[in-house]
Amino acid sequence: MTPSVDSPPVPPRGRRVQQTIEQLRGRILGGEWPVGGRIPTEPQLVTALGVGRNTVREAVRALVHAGVLECRQGSGTYVVSTDELAPVVARRLTDDRMAEVVEVRRAFEVEAARLAALRRTPEDLVALDGALAAREAAWRSGRVAGFVEADVALHTAVVAAAHNGMLAELYASVGAALRSTVAYVTGDSLQPQRYVDHSRLVAAIRDGDPGRAAIEAGAFLEPLSGA
């Protein structure tokens, strides 16, 4: 009598959908389906992933709801973001909530500055000096858009110097909100009274002084009057 061979257990439906979501997300994060590109059709996904049509449909729907994918009638489904949190933040960002965004920035950036003072490497200090110099040059140029990007780049360099991967990922998720607050407080032109010196922040990180770094990072995030 031929011994029977047990088939591998079939995951419950909810688990199959979650596994499929993870597979789709993995291909997006891995660059196989870049932002702006169209993902394979439903039948192609069924074949590639080895799951049923309904499972694929539910997984795609979940990523559409999360803001990662977008279905375009008559064209297909496209990747619109690699980050599920960023679209949520963007949808909630309005002028009357700008104060809340500044509070969130403060929560991230004060701790990031404190950690950066403790963990910064020589490479981090080079990056911070470069970002600070670029920010100063952008201010002198008088171009608002250039200054906003340079200011964001400096804050991002501080977060990177904290060497906390989760903090960096969360901070990246609020990137659009960060740019909006900087642009909001900067206004339509670069006015001298709106200038905020960030050299003391970089100096505190360089000196390895976490308390001073935290104070400097929080100082310009108190009112909505400085970037």
TrEMBL record:
CDD domains (alphabetical): WHTH_GntR (cd07377)
Keyword annotations of the record: DNA-binding, Transcription, Transcription regulation
GO molecular function: DNA binding; DNA-binding transcription factor activity
Domain HTH gntR-type: 14-82
Keyword field contains Zinc: no
Name the UniProt record assigns to this protein: GntR family transcriptional regulator
Source organism of this protein record: Micromonospora wenchangensis
A Pfam family the protein falls into: FCD
